[in-house]
Each structure stands twice: as structure tokens, then as C-alpha cells.
């Protein structure tokens, strides 16, 4: 009996290439029997065009947790609850939910769908309308800029975490080497509004962590502090090993980083509601003042919160969804993840205000004396409240682990946007993802060093003010116009139907074409009209710093016109021909040669 083994690879298959092992068995009587088995391929899978097949998420839940982890970040804890309290309590939910429905969810859905259908990063997806590829580079740059300072917040949380492993927390008293004569315990200082007084927790953050007392301003930065530099290095290492192998590794990391905050928030809420004064704090958080809805500023702040809380415009949602399977139900994912994000913001308000109510009760001051947003809430007020609890070190460790996990997966999302966007645009980087990821994280680390100097808080404030403010609103506006108007809502709806089996309803199409672009245009105008120069406390930034900030913001926004000009100049033919090629999807360029350009017809612009 003899056998022959042959291996055959089909040239194309919708399910991907497979190796077929054929075993021929010859019996003694001359009769041959053939059996075959499928063997997993040992080489990298390729598609019919010879390119590598795109990596996909190991499990659907990996994608959902990654999106939730990115969208749910520190701002859900330190900004939304304060906005709700300041702007009419429960009444603030009216404008918030209104803008969520007409703009937040439609834009969230749009980004998930365009990334999943085209299976490219933020720049590569614009093969649907090449002239708009500049907006892809805009959002990539914005994500890169945000990484320069966002990682610093995580390093602060890590510093506090290490400092919490002690019998007595270091921000309890005023008898430390870093304290100034102005330091005063709450118990010894009833006039908490006195600007010349500072609590131990406030001085710990500003003088022990930031060392801002050793700097006179942004033009006097000093050297990087080795303690914060070490924490920043740890954060960078964590990010690298979470991202270096792509979604196969990051999809596993988010099982911890995306779920841990919910566990900790629940534990903190159970502890918070048992504290005296907690119920008063929660009542203040939920108190309804519908008269506040007559104030235009309340609506503007609700719209701004929606724009930034969902994470649209950073290229992250496009990058994450590009690793989905083609038939994944991105509509359901958009509804689930955007809803979870908003519910998390609302839920975290109960946690925050239960402790703020406790602080108000304990120190016998009005709630508005302790309620604040931003870094002051999570690095001053909350640590101060925790320090008064029995077993304060344990609660501090738990709290800062939550901040660490909240920050890490959001930072991972921003980095993935940059990495995916660039390696999809420059295919030669695909084979060197590990090295390119290392290059990005090291470059981010080096720039971030400016934020961990004595005057680093000034650099941080400048970046926070300019890197992703007006520029992100502008980017999403151009993105919405490019997809809904130039590519076309009808064509985009056909793409979605091809993926999930049904077209989006008229509500979604109307939002994409009219409501969301008008909303974003309004926000861009308001952003310019209400612009205020940055400041930190009483410090006012010099004119050159503001100019530098505007250059940073404009550097990302100018990618849109610069690339459009470049595209029009490099295409062959007359101007009309170049324009036709620039606004027509690359897959339809053959139609341009025959004069069939959809965008040159009235029907294209009127159809919904």
C-alpha cells in the first residue's frame, strides 16, 4: 500500500484561503480511495489581490469593550456631574439628551459604519472621496497632540497610587516639607473662600506633585521631575505592550481596563451613600431648575459635552470598527456603546456628589464651596474626602486604580487611531507594526516630558486648551459634509445595507445630511465666538504662548485645505476632470472617463 500527499491552495475564497491535504490510498486490488482534510494555513492569509487579510477582533466583546473604554474616560467623572449640578441639575439632562439624539448618536453611528465598510484607518477611508483625505490627517494629528498631555494625567494618577501605599496619606496635614505658610486645614480655616489659603490636598497636588512653586511661568519650565518622569515611563510601557500586536492584544487588555471602573464606581457609591451629608449632595446633583433652560449657555455647554464625551472626531471609532467583520451589526453597536457612555456619566454623578455632600457636611460649608470640575475634583477634592474615611489608604488605592484604568484605555484608543491611520496609509509600515508603535510611543513620551517639569502644568494647560477644542469640532464638521454630501447619504446607506442587511431609517439620513452638519457648524462658530485665552489660576499666558497654541490648533485644521489643493494639483487633465476624480470614490474612477459623475447631477445633492 502506498500513499501520496499533495497540498493545494485555492486562489480565492470568500472565507479566506485554506490548505487542502489530499491523501491517495492504493489498495492491493487496484482500487484507489481518496480522502481529504483541511489543514490550517501556516502562511499569512492573503486576499485575492495578493494583499494581507485585515486583522479582526478576537471576539465581538473585545470591540465593544474597546469602544466603551475609549469613550468612557476621566471627563465622565470630573466634568459631566459638575455640569449637571451647575446647569439646573436634572433639567440639564433635557438639552444633553436632545443633542445626544440629534447629533451624538448619528455621528457615532456614522464613524463606526464608515470604518467597518472601508476597513481602513482615519485617512484611508477617504478613498470614498479623495479630496477629503486631509480631514483624516487632521484627526490623526489631533489624537497625537492629545496623547502628549493625556498620558500625563495617567502618570499623576499613578503617582498618587504609589503615594497611597502608606499608613497615613501624605495630603492630610500641613506639616510636610512641601507645605507653605498659607496651608490651612479645613478645621482651622472656616473662610475657605480666602484665596490666600490652601488645603493640604491642594498643596500636595500643586507643590508636592507638580512643584509649580518652582516655576514662574511657561517660560521657566525647569527640568523634568524624575518622579513624574518615572510614572510617565511606566504608562508608556503599559501602552506599548497593550498596542504592539494590534487588536489581538489591546482587545484583551480592555477586559480589565474597561470593566474595572464600573466595579470601583459601584464600590465607591455603596460607601459614599452611607456617609453623612451624602443624600444632600445627591439631591443637589438631581435638583431640577427648569428656569436654567432659558439660559443659552446651558444649551451650549450640553452641546459641547456631547461633542467631546462620545469621542467622535478622534479617528478612534473609525480605527476600531475597521477591524470588525464586514457583516457586524454596527447600528446596534452604536446604540449600545453611546448609551452606556451617557449612562456612565450620569451614574458617576451619584458617586461624586455623595462624597461632595459628605465634604460639605463635614466642614460645614455650602456645597458650591467644594464642588468643582477638572483635575481639581479628582486630585484635590476627592482625595481629601477619602483621607477622612476609616481605612483611607485602602480607599485611595481603589480610587486611583479606577482613574488609572479610566485613562489607560482612552489613551490606548488615541494611540491606535494614530497607528492604524498611518500604517493603513503607508502600507510599508504593516510589516513593522511593533517598531512603528515603539516609535510613536517614544515620540509621545519625549514631548510629554515638557509636561512633567516644574512648569509643566502651564504646558499641560496650553495643550489642553488648543489641541482638541475648535479643531476637533472643525474636523467632525468636514467629516460629516464629506460623507453625507459629497459621498452621498444614499450611497452611504447602500453601504450600510450591504453590511447589516437593511438601510438606515429616514431619521438617521436626515440627521446625517442636515441636522448634524448644522449642529456642528453652530458649534464651530460658537467655539470661535466664545474663545477665551487659557489661564491657570491667576497666571495669564503671554501672547507668544497663545500664538503657539493657535499654531498647534491650525496645524491640524490646515490639513484639510492643504491636502485638497495637493490632490487637485497632482491629478491629470483639465480642472473639471481633476475635480471629478477628486470627489468620486476611487472604485468609480472608471466612470469618470465616460462622463458619469454622480456628484455632477442635481439628484445626488437632493436625495436623502
TrEMBL record:
Keyword terms: Disulfide bond, Membrane, Metal-binding, Sodium, Symport, Transmembrane, Transmembrane helix, Transport
Coiled-coil boundaries: none
Subcellular localization(s) per the UniProt record: Membrane
Classification via Pfam families: SNF (PF00209)
GO MF term list: metal ion binding; symporter activity
Positions that bind Na(+): 69, 71-72, 76, 309, 341, 406, 409-410
Membrane topology, record value: Multi-pass membrane protein
InterPro entries in UniProt: Na/ntran_symport (IPR000175), SNS_sf (IPR037272)
GO CC list: plasma membrane
Ranges annotated as spanning the membrane: 63-81, 93-114, 135-162, 226-243, 255-279, 299-320, 340-361, 381-406, 435-460, 466-489, 510-531, 543-565
SS bond list: 174-183
GO terms classed as biological process: amino acid transport; sodium ion transmembrane transport
Family label: Belongs to the sodium:neurotransmitter symporter (SNF) (TC 2.A.22) family.
PANTHER family documented for this protein: SODIUM-DEPENDENT DOPAMINE TRANSPORTER (PTHR11616:SF38), SODIUM/CHLORIDE DEPENDENT TRANSPORTER (PTHR11616)
NCBIfam families named among the record's database cross-references: Na_transp
Protein name: Transporter
Organism taxonomic ancestry: Eukaryota, Metazoa, Chordata, Craniata, Vertebrata
Amino acid at each position: 500500500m502506498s500513499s501520496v500527499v499533495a497540498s493545494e491552495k485555492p486562489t480565492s475564497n470568500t472565507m479566506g484561503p485554506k490548505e487542502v491535504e489530499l491523501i491517495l490510498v492504493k489498495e492491493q486490488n487496484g482500487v484507489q480511495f481518496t480522502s481529504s482534510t483541511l489543514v490550517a494555513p501556516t502562511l499569512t492569509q492573503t486576499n485575492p489581490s495578493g494583499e494581507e487579510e485585515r486583522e479582526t477582533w478576537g471576539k465581538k466583546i473585545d470591540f465593544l469593550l474597546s469602544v466603551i473604554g475609549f469613550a468612557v474616560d476621566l471627563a465622565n467623572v470630573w466634568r459631566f456631574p459638575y455640569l449637571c449640578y451647575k446647569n439646573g441639575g436634572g433639567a440639564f439632562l433635557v438639552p444633553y439628551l436632545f443633542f445626544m439624539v440629534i447629533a451624538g448618536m448619528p455621528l457615532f453611528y456614522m464613524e463606526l459604519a464608515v470604518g467597518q465598510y472601508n476597513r481602513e484607518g482615519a485617512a484611508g477611508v477617504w478613498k470614498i472621496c479623495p479630496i477629503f483625505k486631509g480631514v483624516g490627517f487632521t484627526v490623526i494629528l489631533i489624537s497625537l497632540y492629545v496623547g502628549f498631555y493625556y498620558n500625563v494625567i495617567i502618570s499623576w494618577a499613578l503617582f498618587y497610587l504609589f503615594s497611597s501605599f502608606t499608613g497615613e496619606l501624605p495630603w492630610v496635614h500641613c506639616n510636610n516639607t512641601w507645605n507653605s505658610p498659607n496651608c490651612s486645614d479645613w478645621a482651622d480655616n472656616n473662610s475657605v473662600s480666602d484665596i490666600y489659603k490652601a488645603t493640604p490636598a491642594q498643596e500636595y497636588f500643586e507643590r508636592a506633585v507638580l512643584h509649580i512653586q518652582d516655576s514662574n511661568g511657561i517660560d521657566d519650565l525647569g527640568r523634568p521631575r524624575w518622579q513624574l518622569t518615572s510614572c510617565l515611563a511606566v504608562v508608556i510601557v503599559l501602552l506599548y505592550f497593550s498596542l504592539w500586536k494590534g487588536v489581538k492584544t489591546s482587545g484583551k487588555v480592555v477586559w480589565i481596563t474597561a470593566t474595572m471602573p464600573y466595579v470601583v464606581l459601584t464600590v465607591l457609591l455603596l460607601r459614599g451613600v452611607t456617609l453623612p451629608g451624602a443624600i444632600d449632595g445627591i439631591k443637589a446633583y438631581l435638583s431640577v431648575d427648569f428656569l436654567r433652560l432659558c439660559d443659552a449657555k446651558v444649551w451650549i455647554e450640553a452641546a459641547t459635552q456631547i461633542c467631546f464625551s462620545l469621542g467622535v472626531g478622534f479617528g478612534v471609532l473609525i480605527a476600531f470598527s475597521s477591524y470588525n467583520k464586514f457583516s457586524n451589526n454596527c447600528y446596534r453597536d452604536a446604540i449600545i456603546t453611546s448609551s452606556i457612555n451617557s449612562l456612565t456619566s450620569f451614574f458617576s454623578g451619584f458617586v461624586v456628589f455623595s462624597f461632595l455632600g459628605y465634604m460639605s457636611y463635614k466642614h460645614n460649608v455650602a456645597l458650591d464651596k467644594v464642588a468643582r470640575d477638572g483635575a481639581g475634583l479628582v486630585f484635590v477634592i476627592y482625595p481629601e474626602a477619602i483621607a477622612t474615611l476609616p481605612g483611607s489608604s485602602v480607599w485611595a488605592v481603589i480610587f486611583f486604580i479606577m482613574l488609572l484604568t479610566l485613562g489607560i484605555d482612552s489613551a490606548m484608543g488615541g494611540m491606535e487611531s494614530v497607528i492604524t491611520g498611518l500604517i493603513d496609509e503607508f502600507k510599508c509600515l504593516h510589516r513593522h507594526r511593533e517598531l512603528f508603535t515603539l516609535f510613536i510611543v517614544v515620540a509621545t513620551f519625549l514631548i510629554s516630558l515638557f509636561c512633567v517639569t516644574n512648569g509643566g502644568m502651564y504646558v499641560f494647560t496650553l495643550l489642553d486648551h488648543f489641541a482638541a477644542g475648535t479643531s476637533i469640532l472643525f474636523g467632525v464638521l468636514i467629516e460629516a459634509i464629506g460623507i453625507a454630501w459629497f459621498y452621498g447619504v444614499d450611497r452611504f446607506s447602500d453601504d450600510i445595507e450591504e453590511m447589516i442587511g437593511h438601510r438606515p431609517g429616514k431619521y438617521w439620513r436626515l440627521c446625517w445630511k442636515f441636522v448634524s452638519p448644522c449642529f456642528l457648524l453652530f458649534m464651530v462658530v460658537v467655539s470661535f465666538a466664545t474663545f477665551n485665552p487659557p489661564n491657570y489660576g491667576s497666571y495669564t499666558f503671554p501672547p507668544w504662548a497663545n500664538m503657539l497654541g493657535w499654531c498647534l490648533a491650525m496645524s491640524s485644521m490646515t490639513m484639510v485645505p492643504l491636502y485638497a489643493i495637493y490632490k487637485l494639483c497632482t491629478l491629470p487633465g483639465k480642472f473639471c476632470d481633476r475635480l471629478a476624480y477628486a470627489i468620486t470614490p476611487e472604485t468609480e474612477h472608471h466612470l469618470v472617463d465616460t462622463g458619469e459623475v454622480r456628484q455632477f447631477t442635481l439628484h445626488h445633492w437632493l436625495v436623502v
